[in-house]
Amino acid sequence: METTDLLKIASEHGSPIYVYNSEKMISQYKRLQNAFQKVKHLRLHYAVKALSNISVLKLFNSLGSALDTVSIQEVKLGIKAGVPAQKIIYTPNGVSVEELEEAVKLGVQINIDNLIILEQFGTKHPKVPVCIRINPHVMAGGNTNISVGHIDSKFGISIHQMPHILRIVENTGMHINGIHMHTGSDILDIEVFLHAAEILFDAAENFKDLEFLDFGSGFKVPYHENDIETNVEELGEKLSKRFNEFCKSYGRDLTLAFEPGKFLVSEAGFFLAKVNVVKQTTSTVFAHIDSGFNHLIRPMFYGSKHEIENISNPNAKKRFYSVVGYICETDTFANNKMITEINEGDILAFKNAGAYCFSMASNYNSRYRPAEVLWYNGEAHLIRKRETFEDLIHNQIEISLETNVVESV
């Protein structure tokens, strides 16, 4: 996929628009497979929340990927995409027993991270296999909003509450077939990950009928040239060796599972937006685009810094610009960033826009959500239409109201 292809997509389908390169998704999936090729049983669950378009789910299903889901709606999307229910793990947070039961009826693997829910579910359904999400109390992640393994996190059952877990399992007679953890996203130090893995291995010793250990994910991807990233090859070498040693001592070959999302789709994504106007103030040159944080909230929410390239004018002299949106609040994508000279009508390409970008988009300011395109087999395929006014009001219900009524006092 070349720059000319991106410009053609923007011309044919309009802007703003998300474009995903399937070749990058495939290469990242194979890279992770190769990193853990020494493990006898490896299962990769694509994290649906990163990018949930059904065509993307079908792509990963064609690669043999399983799915990681966090809502009953994601479960149904996966099944609709053709993913076998037994290859879907459902890891919600704070949901009711009723939603867990709905997932069980659909035939997926459930993962419970709450003592009370564990007891309630085990009492009612002791024969249903259950995975338990452990909080290892290991801090990892590039932002507090995506660090989920620390002691104050709402996720998982504390490793220090293992006696409570074992009491519930014994009292209910329930079947525990997996142990799970997820420390956070954007993990830089693989030693932190390996430390958390040891905690999971220790927890697993308490259960004699396990089928898999799920190590979550959180691998960091590069956001700019020379940016650091998780060394998955080194992690694969070290964790595979330790996992195989554990399986030998456990007496059975278990499945090693991961739940990559950002790692698989982040670098595959481009967000294309048109420059509406260039505005010079007393201190700044603003490039106003035809979008805002309603379409790409990560810079405002996580402080993420997406590389921005002027693909309409790539060889011009660079100048300093602040790239901003059209939302009626501050929605700054970049402050005083060097970009090749920008003119009205130019197309800016935001890189690393595959993960948690469209999936977090909204209709704030009553703006339409953008279209999505998948670059597959050398061609651009529209996989989501741009919304229209009819989509905006589709589920709204107008009621009859009296007009020109003045209440007398």
From TrEMBL:
The modification N6-(pyridoxal phosphate)lysine is found at residue 49. Pfam families: Orn_Arg_deC_N. GO terms for biological process: lysine biosynthetic process via diaminopimelate. Its cofactor is pyridoxal 5'-phosphate. Specifically catalyzes the decarboxylation of meso-diaminopimelate (meso-DAP) to L-lysine. HAMAP family: LysA. Belongs to the Orn/Lys/Arg decarboxylase class-II family. LysA subfamily. This is Diaminopimelate decarboxylase. It comes from Psychroflexus salis.
